[in-house]
Write a structure and sequence with these properties.
Elements: H1 2-9, E1 11-16, H2 41-50, E2 54-60, H3 62-65, H4 71-87, E3 94-98, H5 122-130, E4 133-142, H6 145-154, E5 157-160, H7 166-173
Parallel strand pairs: 1-2, 1-4, 2-3, 4-5
Helix pairs in contact: 2-7
Length: 178
Amino acid sequence: MAIIQEATKRRAAVIFDRDGVLNVDHGYVGDVSRFEWIAGARAAVRRVNQAGALAIVATNQSGVARGYFSETDVARLHEAMQTDLAAEGAHIDAFYMCPFFAEAAAPRYVHPDHPDRKPNPGMIVRAIADWSIDPARAVMIGDKASDMEAARRAGITGALFAGGDLDAFLQGLRIENL
């Protein structure tokens, strides 16, 4: 009985890549002034929230490692995203960010193959543990093969977003069945 109870406590989740999925990828977006929501992204996050699933972001941010912007800049951008989402009755439950990169300008960010840097599954695996996510009820939405590989390695479904309206894409995934 305890095993069944534990399984029912595990949560459904949609894990979003950020650049190219939630926002237009203008290349190294680390400042609010360069941030532009993808069509339907705010509605998609609200849909996830309304379905009772967790909305999580897992994003590589090599712009930090390259010295283009700081971790503080990324945190400010994520706060601005939360403010925009709140105006739409939505929210992101957690942001996971990997600033590590093999060719980093700052020595503290140099890592040849950090476990969090997609296609490695570290951010997803941590989210699963931190939020008691049921891998069978989780999906990673990404725009790159590395996102899909990270999902596969973490044991969750991957859904490749090729652009367009994210909410319409999410409706096609039938996340309410997660």
